[in-house]
Amino acid sequence: MDATLAADLEGLPGLLERVRAQAVDFLDGLPERPVVVPSQPPGAVPLPERGMGLGRALEVYAERWEPLFSASAGPRYLGFVTGGATPAALAGDWLTSVADQNSTSALDAAGHHLEQATLEWLRELFGLSPAQQGTFVTGATMSNTVGLAIAREWLGASRGVSVAESGAGALGRVRVLSGSAHSSVAKALSMLGLGRSALVPVATLPDREAVDPAALEAALLEAREAGEACVVVANAGTVNTVDFDDLSALAALRDRYGCWLHVDAAFGAFGALSPDHEHLLRGLDAADSICVDLHKWLNVPYDAAVQFTRHRELQVRVFRNAAAYLGPLGESPDPVHLTPENSRRLRALPAWFTLLAYGREGYREIVTRCAANARALGDAVESTPELRLLAPVRFNVVCFTLATDPTPEALARLAADVGREVFVTPTVYAGVPALRAAFSNWRTTSRDVERVARALRERVAHDG
Q1: What are 224-267's pLDDT values in tens digits?
Q2: How many CB atoms lie within 10 A of CB 342?
Q3: What is the similarity comment for this entry (predicted)?
Q4: Total domains in the fold of the chain
Q5: What is the CATH number of the domain that holds 250?
Q6: pLDDT for res 107
Q7: Partner of 308 for a Cys bridge, out of 15, 134, 155, 449, CB 3.0 to 4.6 A?
Q8: Verdict on whether the full-model pTM lies above 0.90
């Protein structure tokens, strides 16, 4: 064994204690750490011929890289609908690396069994029936991709072909209809060989991001008359305003027109925990496939999401991995047959820890507090003359702009100027350049909202 590696092994308990202390210092500093640190990468360093060992590597990391990292795990990082990592999720993530399990095969099954147990809890958390079978993936993009891959196979089966065997060319023209599809949907269609142009926007309700069911029915009728297969991508929580499609109405259209219904509920699925929002999830269980992101409101570390579907047999047809060393397929497919990945870490363990530690009640509190925080910031924006709220605060996202001259450049300056206090991301809503603040971090309190509002008010007053 390499001498430096052997020394690290012998001194591992003490080294891990140093890691623990360094991690605690970082976490303790989150409330006052600059939310985003404007920086340039440090100068290049050549790969060492002789390693320096973990102890010295910790020192170099603390000197060169840690000061540049944002406070993305902290309470005022409001971009990208990013959660953080609860104490239990952090412990689970550390132990995931410690155990280093291969969770893809029944030949070494403990990780697989833990994943299944965790998926059952998540299914219950979101109010889904046992007909919805799930699997872990990296994030919402991969969850949407897997769901649409199963949809592609279903469309082929309805035409007597297997796309998994014959390729997307055997399917013919496909229309993917959506009112306000997330950008990952077009990316998924590109990867799946259906093409970005397959995504056809459908009119939304007035002053809403929710699809107009009448317009969607007209689009489905047009596709039927053209002999084209259809997938409907519904939203349970849009990016800009957290708008929800009428999922029950869309499920009825699915039944009437024989299309596939995929629901992107990346963070909106957690509305099932909120007494004020749970009605918006009616009809979710009827979907053919569902996307839910876990490194958002479940507050587990990057990267983690789940994908649910009622059509497990088609999922296996798409992702089946045939190799003698994997063993037979069996009645309960191993995860290796359910996603594009043959290799995956045990993402279920942080989720298992945090669900067990805090339960439904704990997550209901996080969701309702985040919604209250968003309403409070929305009220602060409305009371600031230099700012304008662009849409009602429906759940956990505040979409706002400058009251006058809301150019992308002006908004970028505002976001940069307040970046040490809060991270918000640019967007465009109803043709107007805007900023959005998304609340999903378990640490965020009303005091953080007051601090964010104060930073925004002081900056726009100064610029005015």
Answers
A1: 999 999 999 999 999 999 999 999 999 999 999 999 999 999 99
A2: 14
A3: Belongs to the group II decarboxylase family.
A4: 2
A5: 3.40.640.10
A6: 82
A7: 134
A8: yes
